[in-house]
Every structure is written in structure tokens, then in C-alpha cells.
Amino acid sequence: MRVGSDEIVNSYAAMSGKVVQNVFVAQGYQQNRQSETQYRRDCSAPYMRKLLPLQGGKLAWTGISSMQMRNLPKYQSGFVNRGTVYCNAASSTTAVPALDKVDFLKLQNGSDIRGVAIGGVEGEPVSLTEPVTEAIAAAFAAWLLEKKKADAPKRFKISIGHDSRVSAQMLQDAVSRGITGAGLDVVQYGLASTPAMFNSTLTEASHLPYNRNGLKFFTNAGGLGKPDIKDILERAADIYKQFMVEGLTNLEKQTSTSIKRVDYMSVYTSDLVKAVRRAAGDIEKPLEGFHIVVDAGNGAGGFFAAKVLEPLGAKTSGSQFLEPDGMFPNHIPNPEDKTAMKAIIQAVLDNKADLGIIFDTDVDRSAAVDSTGHELNRNRLIALMSAIVLEEHPGTTIVTDSVTSDGLTTFIEKKLGGKHHRFKRGYKNVIDEAIRLNSIGEESHLAIETSGHGALKENHWLDDGAYLMVKLLNKLASARAAGRGGGSKVLTDLVDGLEEPGFAVELRLKIDQNHSDLKGGSFRDYGEAVLKHLENRVDSDPKLQKAPVNYEGVRVSGSGGWFLLRLSLHDPVLPLNIEAPSREDAVKLGLAVAAATKEFPALDTSALDKFVQAF
Fold first, then answer.
1. Which helix (H) or strand (E) holds 115?
2. What is the value of pTM for the model shown?
3. Are 450 and 425 in contact (CB under 8 A)?
4. Residue 458 burial (C-beta neighbours within 10 Å; 0-12, 13-18, 19+)
5. Helix (H) or strand (E) holding 222
6. If we measure between CA atoms, which residue out of 242, 254, 255 comes closest to residue 96?
7. pLDDT for 81-107, tens place per residue?
8. CA 352 to CA 291: how far, in whole Å?
9. Alpha-carbon distance 507 to 516, whole Å?
């Protein structure tokens, strides 16, 4: 689920809080309704808490076991009818169910919060429970109130949305309780994409297994960073301790909050449609005559066919897996997944479509397929987007993650006349680096990862998979308006000249954290020692050459290709990427890595050993 903050209508400082389910959320979500519908919710959840005023910079809690609820008369909002909810606390001595101890900081995954929300998988106990989620939501509210002190006279709203994972409704309800308990209003967007949630902070108003989920937070300044998430989790831990220690109190407190349902996706998709029409000279149906199929993988991206492509005149028959289903019965919604890409390629070929579009679960990543079944993802998608952006902004810097190919660098700099700035893995790292470059006078308009995360300066640096695809549609529409046909050839022609490796592989070398060779140290220290040792060996090998500029791990050229060994951002893993003209050349590079890593017994090199021995 996702959560964000912004200035909304009149004197309201609107917080767009979207609890972004980064775990599987099936069709447990509640549909947005345009009809007059009261939102009735159970305010008497056994572990429900109510926030007291700020004390020492943090929100204090008192337990409330029973709430009397009444809905005030409805009034028409901009989108749907709104029901104002009053929850009146009544003292009670009902016992609170025992709560397990939780290490909240273990839920941090960089700039996100992730955990197991659904049981049933051996060895993966549920960590993102309803009480834990409620505490995190309350902590976000406390964090927000503290950060937005200048807006104190204004009333805050937090919007909440989710993708199609099976735990969506459960987490949405828990987040709503935490936020309304803090005295802030909630706007529920229901099924929505991550990009739409961030976009909601500017307007008036994921690839994890099914049992997992998480939270993403936004303000109108963008997504929260690692320090912010750590701060929120530390606050949540304090709140949760009070849940456990204090139980129920006899204090009474009355608060007035509201929960409103809004169909924000209609606003978001309308903006996407307008963008394509503008690119084509304000033609109403600039994609008329195009056949474009969409594969949403049963995630949240099914809207793109009916709400974006069809209003633009495109034919979308043959689109597949548009209905949200958090068990993902057809394939994982992931533009990097081979099965997923095979599915959209087949759909394009079977339907003789001009273009295929595929999204991940929450639509912040995407990829495409041309009419011949040629994939436009990873380096090819970066090359295509670079070509489009450099037409609009000649000479600009393209920021990418660390695993992009040498051929891409040559394409961007020699063919397109831009500058390639290869940075670190992690979409937030790439985006923040592009923002930093602009701040010091180096123009950058695109930050994009091989994973399919891509953000443009013109779109507030939001990694929006739907917006990336709109940029492709803009090229199709403008070419058609200018009398140039050719279907998706307009796009594939833009990446003509991109040198691609004859062989590419990614291997994962895991660190055994229980191995005695760690000597009580952290996996991160051990991984850094591996990298330092590899770097020293490379320095003494005349056949290998370290990259002159490198921001992550050890990147080395040799045998006509390159390899990159780096430490995972979050896990005890050293991913190894190798690209070369042939498998034989790739094995030579693999052997260089194997020679260095064999001296570290806590490192599982079985995948690398198998690769070099199989040749």
C-alpha cells in the first residue's frame, strides 16, 4: 500500500497516504463506487487505539476497546459522496489480545517497508500484522505532523491505495485505523497504481510473492527516503510497546475524523490521455488504427487498456490478465520475468498487434514488445527512452543503474550525443542522483533502471511505468499525425545501432551469515572484504581493467565484455553480472571472479562454479 502527502483543496494540506501493498493483494479490495454509498466501518476492533496529543514530539496512545460510531449526513465531494465518521471512545476493561514482540527496523527495505502479511509459507512467519501496520500508520501521521509544522493550521488528509495483493483490504483497514486514530482524515482510493498515488499529492482532490506486502510513503516532495523510514519505524516501535504494556486505560477522548472514498484513477488516467492527445496536436483519437495489447499480470495495471488506450482510439482486443488477482494465477507481473515476457510476446504475435505493453504489480515498472515480438525492456527500453528524451533535450545526462551494458553507453554517447551516468542499483538511488546532478548544474531529464523503473524530470521524478509507456505512445501518435506510418517500427528504429552482448548472465553468490568465517561480523563487512580482495586481484591481472568511474561494487572489462560484482542493497548476497560476446568469453570472466572468491568459505559460489564448469 502507499501513503503520501500534499497540499490539496483550499485550506486542506492533503496527505496522500497510499499503503502500497508490496506483497500479494488479491481481490479483497473494495471497489470505488460512484453511487451514494456510506462507508461503514467497525470501530470496535479489539486492538484499536486512539492517539492523544503530541508529547515530546511523538504521539501518545491510549487503548480504546469500544467506539460508538455514527455517520453524519453525506455531502457531495468532487468525486464521490463522503461520510463523516465520529468515533466516540468509551472506557472499558476488556482485555487486549497478547501481542508478539516485533523488531520494526527489520521491516525496512531501503525507502520502503516490507514484510510477510499472509501466513502459510514455511519459514516465513507473519511480520506485517494488523496491529503492526496500525502502529506504522500512526507513526507516519506523527512524522507528518512534525515535518509539516508550518501547515499546522491546516487539516491533513492522507490518501490510501493498494494493488491487487491478497492482503490489501486488511492492510488498508489497519492503516485507516492508525491514521484516523491520530485525528487525521483518510481518503481511500482502493485499487490504484503507485504512480497515481504520488500524483494525487500534486493534484486537487511490485514482484514480491503472494504472502508478502509492504508500505510506500509519499509527500508532494516525492517518496520518503531511508532516514525517514527509519524514523517512522522507530516511532512505530514506541507506539507498539504501549500497545503491549498499557493495555486498555479508562481515559476517554472524542475525535472527529472522516473516511472518504475517491475514484482517483479516473483523474490520473485522464491526464495520461491528455498527454498523448497533446503530442499528436490535440487529435481526439490519435491511436486510431493501432492494435495494442496489454498484459497486467493480474496486478493493478488493467486500467491502461480501457481507460487510456481505448479513449485514444486504439484497439485492445487480445489484452490479457487485466482483472486483479493477488494470487497471480497466470504469471508474476514483472517485466524482467522470462515467463511474463513470453506471455506478452505471444499475445502480440497471436493477435497481430502493433505493440504490446506489460506492467508490474503496482505499475511503477513497465516494458513493451514490438509487432515482431522483439522485447523493448532492460537495456533496450533505456536506449529507447534515451532516444526520445535526447530528441527533446539534446546533450542531457541519462542516469542509469550499475548493471547497464557497455553497448548502451556507446549508444547514448556516440549515437545520441548524450552523456551516460552509470550509478548504483535501486530506483531511489538513480532518481536521487539525477536530482543531485541537476542541483549542481548538470542537466538530467531521465533516471532509469534495467528493472523497468523509469522517472522523468517532466513528471516530477516519479517512477511511473504508465507514463513511460505514454512517452512511447506519444511517438506513435505524433508519427501518425505527421503522416509517417510503420506501426511500432517508429520505436524500433530509434534503437537501431544499439550493440547488444552475445551472452549475458546474472549469478547470485549468497553469504552464510552463520558461518564461522564471519567471525561475528556482519554480512555487509564480509561482502566488502570479498570485493576488496577481488579488486586487488584485478589490479595484478594485465588482461583485466577496472572501470575508471564506478559507484558500486567492482566493475571490470576483459575478454571483449565486462563483469560487475556488487553487494545487494538489502540481502546477504553478492550478485554477479557478466556480459560478453560469447559464452566462452563470459566463462573467462567468471573464472577470474571464481579465483578470487574461493578464499571466502562463507560465500556460496555453487552457482558460479556450475557456470564455469558447464562450459
1. strand 112-116
2. 0.75
3. no
4. middle
5. strand 222-223
6. 242
7. 223 222 222 333 334 455 678 889 888
8. 8
9. 24
